[in-house]
Amino acid sequence: MTQGASVEDQSSSVSRRRVLQGLALGAGAVAASPLLAACGSSSDSGTSAAASGGSAAGGGSVTFGSNASDAVPKAAYQKVFDAFTAKTKTQVVVNTVDHNTFQEQINTYLQGSPDQAFTWFSGYRMRFFADQGLSTDISDVWAKIGSQYNESFKGASTGNDGKQYFVPFYYYPWALFYRKSVFKELGLDPSKITTIDELKAAGDTMKKAGLIPIAFADKDGWPAMGTFDYLNVRTNGYDFHVSLMAGKESWTDPKVKQVFTTWTDLLPYHQSNALGRTWQDAAGALLNKKAGMYLLGMFVGQQFPEGPDRDDLDFFPFPQIEASYGIDTVEAPIDGFMLSKSTQNVDGGKALLEYLGSPDAQNIYLASDPNNVGTNNGTDTSKYNALQKKAAELVGAAKHITQFLDRDTRPDFASTVMIPSLQKFIAKPTDIDAILESVEQQKQAIFTS
Predict the structure, then answer these.
(1) pLDDT in tens, 173-213
(2) Would you say 314 and 320 are in contact if contact means Cβ atoms under 8 Å apart?
(3) Where are the CATH 3.40.190.10 domain residues in the chain?
(4) Which CATH superfamily is domain 7-172+334-393 in?
(5) Structure pTM?
(6) 174-331+410-447: which CATH topology?
(7) What is the mean pLDDT of the chain?
(8) CA 222 → CA 216, 244, 415, 442, distances in Å?
(9) What is the CA radius of gyration of the chain?
(10) What's 116's DSSP letter?
């Protein structure tokens, strides 16, 4: 299996302060998975049309594989596709699949009969499929839209061969989200929660008030990765983290064990029975004032109704653990789009990605899902809400950004090793040594294959 980018390669595109400031300113199967292939029904489609060929200028259609199964982003995407159809007369047939299923079956999907365009992630995950020849070079699209983007985004869209394979659409930071009214009632000041001990102290205050300090869910396997990432970068720094993700460090290193030891101390502050709960359910605890905080991406705002509840939502950075690293790293994944290798309508697919890379498309999307920050320099930031502006400032002030564990490492390692291993830890945190020894053994087998 093709290896992903080196640690140096991973860090070069989005790890320098000047680049991050630019972000803020810019605002083996041969058949498709039955589940993925079956989800393109008319009920999941945007504009209904046969998946036939045809150019963008002359109508026809483009099929689009989407992981945006939640109501808010699904509706926001539909408005963008409707605008594209009105502009080009090309219809977009949307195949919407549950987010986790899409991610788990993407490799099989791309090797079968995939949709022409599909939602995906920048960084290692994008390069992984580009290296395998499972996506189409869209450097010609970047020749048209490149002047509207900072170099950091182009770097995050570039494969190991120097060609572009990805169009970034938005990014969003992970942070500790809270309700301002709850903190005010408890007499808590988020600006004073700057260390892990201060976080625990705030948690103690919440416990005394009958609140769950930190909402938590990991039924789907990926949410706990965000907690691990922040604990690791705050404990061991960015360089060690990306090296660990690249398979160059040992999971039995005492540095890694310290991460899990710190996590064990934090678990009593987390919502119990996390393995039976989705992130949306955990967000409900924050919304209904049953939990005081929630470590998640800014998309948590999708669960807050527009109005007083949404206006009450705020966030602060995950606090410092080791002073030498402070809070210099921010987890800020970039989402966007790629073209599959077997597209029937290459011109139509590229026309769609060119449109999705435009400020018009991003403005339309963000108007309905204002829980992200646009990537195009022409995005209308004057319409950003307070959270969007704060998110752009947080990312812009960071020295490094990480994409997310399942995007910064090999997809097979993330899904087959890290998801079950983190869930085992959550279920039985006393088994740290055995869990890490197992992770290391599996890592060695996967990264040398």
Answers:
(1) 999 999 999 999 999 999 999 999 999 999 999 999 999 99
(2) no
(3) 7-172+334-393, 174-331+410-447
(4) Periplasmic binding protein-like II (3.40.190.10)
(5) 0.79
(6) D-Maltodextrin-Binding Protein; domain 2 (3.40.190)
(7) 86
(8) 12, 18, 9, 19
(9) 21
(10) S
